[in-house]
Amino acid sequence: MKYGDIEVPLFENKKESIKFYLLLFFVISLRLSIYYYDYLEFASKPFVYEEAVVSTSVPKNGFKLLKLDTLNGLQLYGRYFGDMKLNGYRVWVKIYIPQNLNFFKYMRVFFTNIEIVSYEKSSSIQDILSQAVAKEHTNLHISSLYQAIYLAIPPNKYIRDRVSLLGISHLVALSGFHIGMLWAVVFFVLKAVYTPLQQRYYPFRYDLLDIGIVTLILLGVFTYVVGSPPSLMRSYIMMLIGWSLLLMGIKLVSFELLFIVMMLLITFEPRMFFSISFWFSVAGVFYIFVVFRYFVGVSNIKIAIVLPFSTYIFMMPIVHMIFGTLSAFQLLSPILSIVFIIFYPLSLFLHFIGYGYIFDDILIKLLDMPTSSSEIYTDKLFFIWYMIISILSIWYKVAFVLLILSSIVFCLWIYI
Asked: Could you tell me the domains of the chain?
């Protein structure tokens, strides 16, 4: 870290840092032990009754595949043979415990047989806002898209498939990218209103401190309302810690900040360790920090242009280790990411004033563009190599160069 021009370590010595990290690992281990005990108790029963929210409902042949999020934090898929459209509903469900349920599936997501005992329409703030967004659109797919980028409501299958083919799944899943834009909008709107009043009536106050605190509170409420998805929680906690350190005149080394926030989040909610979206989010921020590490002194405009392209290229081997979908239209991803910086706050403002439908026709045409795709996955040995040079790029420029070359070669390989 730095205080002025003087290097100030986060910990006074290595002994303190070791104690801090050992404490984190101990708490994580303790939390996982508690979850494992809950898993053993859960798996020992033939069935349980849980209250849950239906986050997605996908029509199949003769039934609907429901994704349920229970109030106890479980995520599971189950068949529903009724005619009722339960998407967004709160249900009382009988869950049959599968015999092959292991701890990994329990912590992440599993498929099992279910019976819906009762249901009622959810009346949360998220649902109320979701209905308000839907009223401004006649196309259900566009409504689903906006509900995803504003309220973290899982999009329908059509939107999931389309954004995957366009390579913009990261734009649809709420993350640090979105909360960063919301921070900028809220902060500068509040500054325009508050600063003149502060300078006239109470100049002894530090306006940036007051505005920053209010902005953090508002974004915290937003994060809670949309269900605190892992990628958004990581970003909010990182922003909260970063702002606190900034007020103390300290700038934390970015990689250390990322690691500490990652560990704190896993300590707070161990299920995040098993979340793919969480690790994608961490990887995305990691590569952004790598770019900052070697582009010191470059203008903000150039960085804003470089980041979408570099992050896209660096993330390709990571993404294709899990998801193999490949489309030529994914090459538009960096450009669409830049456009999204303007589109997101503008479309949000248009929804506030009742003109959220303005971009519907353009979005429909964009989503209809991809027509075909293929499946290509990252080779395991290459993935190991890529992880090693990614980590080494924190300290060594030669590793950063190898990272660039490896990611470019990978992109050429999958597209050519």
From this structure: 42-122 (2.40.50), 169-415 (no CATH)
